[in-house]
């Protein structure tokens, strides 16, 4: 993500104090730091545990291997983060599950909604 996409990535495993933190702490930290949470962890799809309205946005990637994951990340970069009119937090209040076939809204307001 850093090298190929030039993303400013905050990777929790690089921070000893966050390595063993609970998912909810990572979710809250992403909001506090105004960062979209990018993950492979499908636990974040649970709206009861991770309310979309309280988040800065989540993309849960589902990929069978690293090559496919890299393809999905590149698509997200083009279609979400660098798309025409993209804002700093393009998924604020929403969650996407992004797999090989498509990206789908799984929580929060509908895509394109202004609320």
Describe the structure.
By secondary structure, the protein is of the alpha/beta class. Helices cover 30% and strands 17% of the residues. A four-stranded mixed beta sheet has the order 1-2-3-4, sandwiched between helices. The N and C termini lie far apart (30 Å).
How are helices and strands ordered from N to C? HHHEEHEE
* Count of DSSP strands: 4
Give the CA-CA distance, first to last residue: 30 Å
Mean pLDDT: 91
Range of strand content: 15-25%
Largest sheet: 4 strands, mixed
Count of helical stretches: 4
Q: How much helix, percentage-wise, in residues? A: 25-40%
Query: Major sheet: order of its strands?
Result: 1-2-3-4
Q: Residue ranges: pLDDT <50 for 5 or more in a row?
A: 111-115
Number of domains: 1
Main structural class: alpha/beta
Radius of gyration: 14 Å
What overall geometry do the principal axes of the alpha carbons give? globular
Task: Supply the key terms.
115 residues, alpha/beta, 4-stranded mixed sheet, disordered C terminus
Blueprint of the fold:
Layout: H1 2-5, H2 16-19, H3 23-32, E1 37-39, E2 58-62, H4 66-81, E3 94-99, E4 103-108
Parallel strand pairs: 1-2, 2-3
Antiparallel strand pairs: 3-4
Structure, briefly:
With 115 residues, the protein is of the alpha/beta class. The chain has one domain.
């Amino acid at each position: 993500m850093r090298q190929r996409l030039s993303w400013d990535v905050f990777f929790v495993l690089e921070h000893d104090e966050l390595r063993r933190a609970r998912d909810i702490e990572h979710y809250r930290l992403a909001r506090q730091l105004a960062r979209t949470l990018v993950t492979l962890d499908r636990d974040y799809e649970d709206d009861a545990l991770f309310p979309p309205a309280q988040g800065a946005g989540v993309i849960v990637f589902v990929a069978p291997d690293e090559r496919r994951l890299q393809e999905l990340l590149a698509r997200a970069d083009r279609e979400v983060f660098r798309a025409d009119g993209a804002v700093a937090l393009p998924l604020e209040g929403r969650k996407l599950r992004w797999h090989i076939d498509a990206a789908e809204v799984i929580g929060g307001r509908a895509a394109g909604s202004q609320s």
